[in-house]
């Protein structure tokens, strides 16, 4: 009987909302040492983590960085680092914020590394900085509005709306106190509302 | 509740269940309208933030990790192992037994052969589109007319993430493995054990390995693979 690694039980239910199918790792001999089985367990844990959270982590990276290509690179680095320190993730329920912490650190590293060849974002003209156009005007305008927020407002609102973080979780992630987070969420939304209202009025006056 | 406080709470959390906020909205149509407007904006924001994710990102992340891990393992071999390896290699040279260096990969390939039924039951059947989406991980593509593929499924050969296709032929099942060529250890062009015969060849950026019980199947599928499979670099 070949060693069916599917029998190793790991509880991912805490952080996997959708059903995740594992990639099988067949072909390993039954005399597999416990070290290799540990490696396989780690591999499976990693793959489950990737499948459950890569989309959210990528989206967050794009909103943080405002460039899909760089965001994808940073996500690659993030998951590579996650693999290396996977043993330190004890509580699967904390996986999302654990990955976001790594991602923010990786992003900061990018600035340390590349401080001399940075492009000033204001010099780059971008129609929709975060996504290929989907033809939905309201989406596009909203994306522009969200992207135009300064980092200090954009990050908390993306953590709340996209990642579903609570005020306390955002405070912990960003190293701020909760009142500051609440103020920033308030200002972020009122700025977005203001931009959207202006756009709308402008649209009406041009069309009218 | 005054207007400013009401707006502040709504702007901070549009889906608040705060009793005072609910009460205030109930008693003031203007407040209610404002809340509804912000809730609508919130739903639109959720949709706007939900930007498309590259389809192959998860596969890339898994592949990148196994590549990296593989390189690390290569790098991390201590010096005395390298020395020992050199001694072994020198002895092998002396005795003239070269040619058995690829046992790791070959034995993993053979091990997979005994899993074919299991894989078909668990992962089959498949279709051309899904085979192609899996091949895309290796920048590969398969044309229509290749033959009946009954299962397509990622697996590990010598700790490298590979794609295992099982093909139904006239004389039983044949396996075709796709391994990134830069990672694959050298494997003889043709190899065999008591039961199986295999052939290994490079197709652009991929190493393709075909294995079957029947040698004639191996050469038939090898021919077909060269014709119908392609990998961009």
Describe the protein.
The complex is a heterodimer of chains A (208) and B (233). Chain A has 208 residues and is an all-alpha fold. Chain A has seven helices and no strands. In chain A, helix 1 packs across helix 3 and helix 6 crosses helix 7. Chain A is elongated, with a radius of gyration of 21 Å. Chain B has 233 residues and is of the alpha+beta class. Chain B has two domains: 47 residues, no CATH class; 122 residues, Phosphorylase Kinase, domain 1 (2-Layer Sandwich), CATH 3.30.200. Chain B contains nine helices and eight strands. In chain B, the strands form two sheets. In chain B, strands 2-3-4-7-6-5 form a six-stranded antiparallel sheet, with helices on both faces. A two-stranded antiparallel ribbon of chain B has the order 1-8. In chain B, strand 2 and strand 3 form a beta hairpin. In chain B, helix 1 runs parallel beside helix 3 and helix 2 packs across helix 3. Chain B is elongated. The interface between A and B is large, with 45 and 44 residues.
The secondary-structure element order of chain A is HHHHHHH
Radius of gyration of chain A: 21 Å
Strand adjacency order, main sheet of chain B: 2-3-4-7-6-5
Overall tally of domains of chain B: 2
List keywords for this structure.
heterodimer, A: 208 residues, mainly alpha, 7 helices, B: 233 residues, alpha+beta, Phosphorylase Kinase, domain 1, 2 domains, six-stranded antiparallel beta sheet, two-stranded antiparallel sheet, 9 helices
Task: Summarize the SSE layout with pairings.
The complex is a heterodimer of chains A (about 210) and B (about 230).
Chain A: H1 34-65, H2 68-84, H3 95-113, H4 137-148, H5 151-161, H6 167-174, H7 178-207
Helix pairs in contact in A: 1-2, 1-3, 2-3, 4-7, 5-7, 6-7
Chain B: H1 3-12, H2 19-27, H3 29-49, H4 57-75, H5 79-95, H6 103-113, H7 116-123, H8 128-135, E1 140-142, E2 148-157, E3 160-169, E4 172-180, E5 190-192, E6 197-203, E7 206-212, H9 215-228, E8 229-231
Antiparallel strand pairs in B: 1-8, 2-3, 3-4, 4-7, 5-6, 6-7
Helix pairs in contact in B: 1-3, 2-3
């Amino acid at each position: 009987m070949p060693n069916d690694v599917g029998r190793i039980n790991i509880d991912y239910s805490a952080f996997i909302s959708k059903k995740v199918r594992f990639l099988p790792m067949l072909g390993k001999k039954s005399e597999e040492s416990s070290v290799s089985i540990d490696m396989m367990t780690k591999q499976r844990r990693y793959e489950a983590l990737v499948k459950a959270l890569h989309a959210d982590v990528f989206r967050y990276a794009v909103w943080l960085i405002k460039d899909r290509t760089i965001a994808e690179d940073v996500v690659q680095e993030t998951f590579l680092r996650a693999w290396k320190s996977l043993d330190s993730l004890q509580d699967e329920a904390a996986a999302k914020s654990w990955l976001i912490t790594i991602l923010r650190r990786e992003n900061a590293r990018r600035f340390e590394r590349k401080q001399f060849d940075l492009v000033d974002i204001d010099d780059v003209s971008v129609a929709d900085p975060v996504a290929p156009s989907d033809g939905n005007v309201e989406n596009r305008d909203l994306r522009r509005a969200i992207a135009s927020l300064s980092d200090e407002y954009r990050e908390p609102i993306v953590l709340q709306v996209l990642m579903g973080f609570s005020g306390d979780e955002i405070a912990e992630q960003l190293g701020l106190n909760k009142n500051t987070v609440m103020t920033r969420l308030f200002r972020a939304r009122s700025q977005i509302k203001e931009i959207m209202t202006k756009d709308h009025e402008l649209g009406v006056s041009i069309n009218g | 509740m005054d207007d400013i406080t009401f707006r502040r709470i709504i702007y901070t959390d549009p889906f608040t269940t705060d009793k005072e906020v609910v009460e205030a909205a109930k008693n003031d149509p203007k407040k209610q309208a404002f809340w509804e407007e912000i809730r609508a904006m919130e739903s639109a924001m959720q949709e706007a933030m939900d930007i498309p994710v590259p389809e192959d990102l998860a596969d890339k992340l898994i592949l990148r990790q196994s590549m990296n891990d593989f390189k690390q393992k290569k790098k991390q071999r201590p010096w005395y192992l390298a020395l020992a390896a050199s001694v072994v290699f020198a002895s092998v040279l002396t005795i003239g037994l070269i040619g058995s260096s690829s046992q790791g990969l070959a034995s993993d390939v053979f091990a997979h052969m005994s899993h074919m039924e299991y894989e078909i039951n668990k992962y089959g059947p498949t279709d051309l589109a899904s085979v192609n989406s899996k091949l895309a991980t290796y920048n590969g593509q398969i044309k229509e007319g290749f033959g009946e593929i009954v299962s397509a499924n990622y697996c590990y050969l010598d700790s490298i993430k590979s794609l295992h296709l099982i093909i139904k032929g006239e004389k039983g099942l044949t396996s075709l493995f796709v391994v990134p060529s830069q990672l694959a250890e050298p494997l003889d062009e043709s190899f065999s054990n008591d039961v199986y015969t295999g052939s290994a060849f490079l197709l652009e950026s991929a190493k393709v390995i075909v294995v079957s019980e029947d040698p004639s199947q191996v050469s038939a599928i090898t021919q077909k693979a060269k014709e119908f499979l392609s990998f961009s670099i």
